[in-house]
Amino acid sequence: MSSPPFVIALDGPAASGKSTVGLGVAQRLGLRYFDTGLLYRALTWLALQRDVDLSDAAALVQLIDALAIDVDALGQVWRERHDITPLLQRPEVDLSVSTVAAHPMVRQQLVPVQRALVRPPGLVMAGRDIGTVIVPDAPLKVWLSASTEERARRRAQQTGENFDEVLDGMRRRDHQDASREASPMARASAAIEVETDDVAPEQVIARIVELAHQRGLRPVERA
Ligand code: CDP
After folding, report:
1. Tens-digit pLDDT profile for the chain (223 aa)?
2. DSSP E strands: which ranges in 146-217?
3. Ligand 1 site residues, Cβ closer than 6 angstroms
4. Which of 157, 160, 150, 61 is nearest to 101 (CA)?
5. What is the pTM of this model?
6. 150 to each of 83, 109, 198, how far by Cα in Å?
7. Ligand 1 atom 25: residue of nearest CA
8. Pocket test for ligand 1, best of 36, 153, 174 (most atoms within 8 A of CB)
9. What are the backbone angles phi and psi of residue 194, rounded to the nearest 5°?
10. How many angstroms does the Cα of residue 221 sit away from the middle of ligand 1?
């Protein structure tokens, strides 16, 4: 009999390192990686493209049916055979994504989409509400944290944007995400906090791999 899917719920604020760490952990453990932020980003991008009113939850929900995106193993997002990954990181998406993600109807519609990804052998799922709402029975929940300044520094370095602007935008987005009524960004009670300030990604990855092993996930057998 095959084991049930092993889910690592990886939550945390903006630019806390979820993608780098999540991909690394998934590779080490032979699991898939999925960044749920991409769903909210893709929806926001499409809404902006189509001039949909971002306060109109019903219109946004309708748009989810038209999303039709594929996310590959490296986290690249494809739509109608185009790689739309870079478009989803644009400043206008950053600016509006938390407004789109705050609608309870939008979040509700995306719950089954995310739960459908939970298949053997399992996956590392990154987001804001994975441990609290999407997969509350995940055997390992991690809350990735870093100071706001450190996160802004990392994001500014990645994108070449101005540090102060990134810092402002990040504070605003974190506040919106943590204060919304519908599944706010929150650390699940059982989540283990992994602090990433001044810690190399490889060390953070090793720590989470160790936690997964402690919870019964066997190391991947390599040929
Ligand atoms: O990469 P970064 O950490 O900056 O953000 P992201 O993970 O791509 O998420 C973008 C936005 O999507 C967040 O600021 C949230 O508003 C929303 N989001 C959410 O509400 N719930 C999730 N599970 C994932 C993302």
Report:
1. 567 899 999 999 999 999 999 999 999 999 999 999 999 999 999 999 999 999 999 999 999 989 999 999 888 999 999 999 999 999 999 999 999 999 999 999 999 999 999 999 999 999 999 999 999 999 999 999 999 999 999 999 988 999 999 999 999 999 999 999 999 999 999 999 999 999 999 999 999 999 999 998 875 544 4
2. 192-195
3. 14-15, 18, 36-37, 40-41, 97-98, 101, 127-129, 173, 177
4. 61
5. 0.94
6. 29, 33, 9
7. 37
8. 36
9. -120, 110
10. 33
User: How many angstroms is it from 170 CA to the middle of ligand 1?
Assistant: 11
| Euclidean distance between CA atoms 110 and 99, whole angstroms | 15
CA neighbours closer than 13 Å in the CB half-sphere of residue 128: 24
Measured from the Cα of 35, ligand 1's closest atom is 7
* Nearest CA-CA partner of 94 in 129, 44, 130: 44
